[in-house]
Amino acid sequence: MRFPYFAPLLCASTAFGAVFYVAPGGDDAGDGSEGAPFQTVDACAAALRAVAPEEERRCVMRGGVYKLTNAALFDGLYGTADSRVVLEGAAGEEVVFDGTIDLDAATWTQSADVCPSAEECYYTDYFADNPGLPEFWQLFADGELLDVARWPNALFTDRTSFDAARWARSGQNSTFEGGKFVVSRVDAGNRRNQSEPYGDSIMVDDTHACEEDGGGDAAGHGGCNPVAGGLGDLTLRNGDAIDVTGAMALMNIASWLSFAAVVTSHTPGNGSFAYRSGPDWPVQKFRGEENIYVLENKLEFLDAGGEWFFDNATRRLYARLPGDVDPGTVKMQARVQRYALAVSRSHYLTVRNMEFFATGLFAGPNEKFDDTWPPSQDPVDQVAHCHFEALRFRYGGGAPRVLGAWDDSLIPLVVSTDQDGTLVYDCEFYGIDGHPLQVDRAPAGQVPGQVSLVNNLLEYIDWTVLSFRPPRVYAPSDTPYADSMTLWSSWQFTYSLVVGKAVAGAPNVVERNTLMHHGASEGIQVMLNTRVRLNRIGHKYALQMDGASIQTISANGWDEASGVDIDSNWIHDTQRARGSKWGVRIDRVNSRCWGAALNEGDQTWGFNGNVTRNVVVRTLGISIKGNRHRVEHNTMLFSGGEDSEGIERDSFNGGLEVYNAGTIGTCRCSKDLGQGRGGRDLCSNFPGQCCDAGNNNTFENRLTVLRHNLFGAPDAKQGGTSYYPDTAAVDEFLGSPLAEANTGALHPEALLRDAINWDFRPLGGSAVAATCAGAYPAGLTHGHHYWIPGRQSKAASTPIPPHGSEVAAVVPGAVPDGEVGSTYDVMFLQGLNAERHRVFAGTNGSALAFIGEMWGEANIFTLPASLAIAAGTTVQWRVDAVTNGTVIAGEVWEFAVAAAPAAPRAGPTCDEHVYAEGVSVADDGSSSTASPTAQQTLAAQMGQFEDTRRVTSLTICANLTAATTMSEFELQGVVRWGPPPIPANTPEYLILSGRFPDTTATSMQVCFSDGAAEAFPSDPWAAAHDGQTYAPVSPMLPFLADQGVTLNVTTVTVALKLFDRKVDGMGGAVDGWSITVCSEPYGDASDTYPEADCEALPVLPATPAPDYVPPTPTTSSSTTGSTSIASMNAESTNTTTGWNATIESTASTAATTNDAVTTTTTTTNGTTINSGASQGGDESVFPWWIAVVCVASLFGLAFAFLAWRRAGRRLVSFADTIDMNGKDDACTMVSHSQALPQDLTDPFKEGLLVSGEFGGGSSPSSKESHAATPLARSPRSSRTQQFVKVYEFI
């Protein structure tokens, strides 16, 4: 077995360190031993302070629920980098700080009379009968959060609180007074004298129910609400209008800023109300028609399951649970605590393995130990180098608004002083209304410290998005439940995660976090010298305008974005009807829009940001402002949506927006995007600052490198595809002279293996594979490493294809054999610190069988042909992680195989679109010199053509009928094109026009082709039709087939127009018409690909904070879902010279034979052990217990290492050598180091493939030998690479 490198430290700390215990039933008069534990953490802290600091000191909390009347104080503990102080929950036990009181003794009464807006509800007078009970501000039923009664019903209980469509809408006549700035409809920038008096602000409601407009575009600009009508229509059950005076209004009133205020006046039945803003609200942008709001905390709003209301006057509590469940039959709890644990004046402290339910942890100044103001900035009084590991926060946020405190968000994890060395590792944050953690606030004049946020999970974060004042100093009290906080004076904007600046040489790290379902304008906001890597960020909502999932913004001059690396992240699902978000944005504010500073202190846009190898799906895309950035190898798919300005982005930039002087921007150094696609040209010379011909820094993005990005066709321009390989048009559109080799395609997802199912590998033989565009290199096949971002758990996770998904059947020959797309591959996110993974599979419900294993970072497994996968097959599979000799069973996943997509059409073909509906034409009578006053139009959406075909002809035929003769009619056909939906202002092109002056026929069929010599007839009135001149298109085909315009892969709208030119009381009709489109394949352009520069991008070093020590895993062998291989090996009744283990109880028991391995299966005590012998060599098992015994001595450490090395030699047993002779791999395989948290600089983690020598019992003798050499760019070279073995069924 692999011997844990940290085991000697564990044994030493247990044998020689000071360990004290705390238990719910303990006694502070005890000695703190395991048999006589303390009752409080305070007593444990006092005992630790009495121990010499050079000894390791641990306070172990035994399992149980800790309900404290006041926060536990952990003060004055100073460890060192080599001997940390530890406060931890006991291994294998659940330690829960619970900030609630139980309402078990409450008597609940059901009534149909007490809740005026609900058919019935429940109430209790428990608080009135017990006046000594503390104040509360959150209510829970069976551990789930209930909502304060609100209107409209946008509730957390059903997660609709994240949906802006469920909020009420503000009208354009709303007004605002107060705040820091003189507010207008645009950025003001002028500060208001806060001592001047101001009046009420007015919220004018513009909410209307969807049924009022036929179910229109909910929550779009001017959209509808699916559950509520207008404020003026709000009534009780008896029909009386509701007075909302006294309610709390939660309002997004300033783009990315939201505030809460009490409604000061409202007239029932009126659609507006007044509120008084704060004198220092930092409101700079106010646009009434863009704002949304909800009202809460009135009994009249209680009408839905999951709501509650507390009447402060009568102390009666009202509630209506989901499903109208009786509250007396479930566990009801009320939150009464701000923080359960307050840490102060401590260095090198680790807090780990515990849960905080409806409470939190505060680390910072404490009035009890430092009563100076402002708090002491002496380093000894700070909280520094603290680690917070494996903590779980559930419902820890939420401002106590019902108590009148709407500026305090009660962030569940706060580090309020010197953050240097702060690590938040492997923590979970769930259901946090507000910021989940605060680690970026440093006192004035203090140098910010290094912060590392690694491997955390954050779900359902911030659904009120209120600005707040962050907590600064904890104020404990001797009175139960009376602890309080001193807040910072300034307002904090709402972001899901904020990481501030770091000093040079010690970057902040935001790595391997998963952030899902979050409402604030920005997901992760980072600044100077920060690395954001391998994070997964999804499902951002539009409760605020503006923003991005990952954003950095210029704020402090030239180096603001310097050192910001945004690399290898997945960002997805931010498209919303009200303000879609960018996936990644390097931003700058308009008032600081220049590239050079004239005077000291002048602020410029940002420089030196790196955005590389990110996958951005279903967002606005990536937006780059500033200059001197590096934007390379990003993949942007399904980009688009309406941004916060109401502008549709998908038809313009394809998902990559680069601000520059020539095309787009929002300030005086570029064009004004607000004026339309072209905008006003504001780029004029401002010497030394903007558009200065002698200084390229003053031209936005003139020095930004943009290379090998894969995205949608910008402005319908294509490049880097098999049918249009030249990327010049795409590169030119980006506006930087340093743009090259960027691939733009209207359907970039079609160039990848299976983007819908998160497989973003380039298809073998595709243009993307040849030109190395996008986030993943070509050739990632069986045994390679496919990087998957997000939090790692002990078990393998993130299956690809996802569980329950559907994949298309593989088409033999469609992709070259052995290339990506020619086989059925499965991929997964590796188990945390796992050294190998064992793969099992079956089909159509059959028992899972062991089919192979992989080592290190390898996570692509090709399913064997013996599984006989085809259309209609359902595949089940599982991956077990093996970590430190323990098997951690994975979940069983499955996917279905659908029919293969239709093969591309070969040769010329024609498609006919028939429109049988008729339309009558009025008797118009317009003269030949004037435009007609009436017309009828039939429009046909011809859909999207295949990407690989060009249009060769277009013919329109129509059946016409006249009441008299056809001589008085004119027929015209016009076209418009563009990526759907086609904007209304898209130019129209006339493709046919005809009159029939000599005919006496009353009906006829006419056909027009695009090949006409002239677009206009000779009649003089044709050019004046509709008061505009149509651009002639003769012939039309060059436009349809022009690869630069790519009309062939966009939507084409054809309009047929029939005009009656004579007044005779008669009219006519179009009885039906048709469009015939003929097309042919593009030629093979594979020989004209641009020269591919596919060198491997440097992998960002995965080095942690200097004082980072990997968390010590539990040594308990009772982990749920895992089995100790050592114990399994000892229990086996048929142990052979080599083994592989799994806990799958249904695995095949038949002997399996292969060239290199013979495997037999023995079942012992319900556990299946696969024992096998590798070919040749002595593979006897080294007694692992000898290594444990040797740890007791200093010399034993070295001996244990040798034992680990010897034991490790038998672990890699199975591999084939695959000859890659003759394969021309133009692109170097790129590997990502994602070894967290163990040995972050270990070269073993850089390996792409499992490798090693086989025969004679040999296997890798060092970590370095596991690493495969990256494939160099060497055409037609002879290379041999070793892959993991696949077990075939026989």
Overall residue-averaged pLDDT value: 74
Overall form: globular
Count, helices: 9
Structural class label: mainly beta
Largest sheet: 23 strands, parallel
What is the number of E strands? Answer: 84
Contiguous low-pLDDT stretches (5 residues minimum) are 1-16, 185-189, 213-221, 443-447, 555-561, 674-678, 925-946, 1011-1036, 1041-1049, 1097-1290
DSSP strand content: 25-35%
Question: What is the share of helical residues?
Answer: under 10%
**Oligomer kind:** single chain
- Our measurement of the CA-to-CA distance between the termini, rounded to an integer number of angstroms, reads 30 Å
CA radius of gyration is: 34 Å
Describe the structure in your own words.
The protein is mainly beta and 1290 residues long. Helix content is 5%, strand content 31%. The protein is built from nine helices and 84 strands. The strands form 16 sheets. The protein has a 23-stranded parallel sheet that branches. Strands 13, 14, 15, 16, 17, 18 and 19 form a seven-stranded antiparallel sheet that branches. Strand 65 and strand 66 form a beta hairpin. Helix 8 runs antiparallel to helix 9. It starts with 6 loop residues before the first helix and ends in a 6-residue tail after the last strand. The N terminus and C terminus are likely disordered.
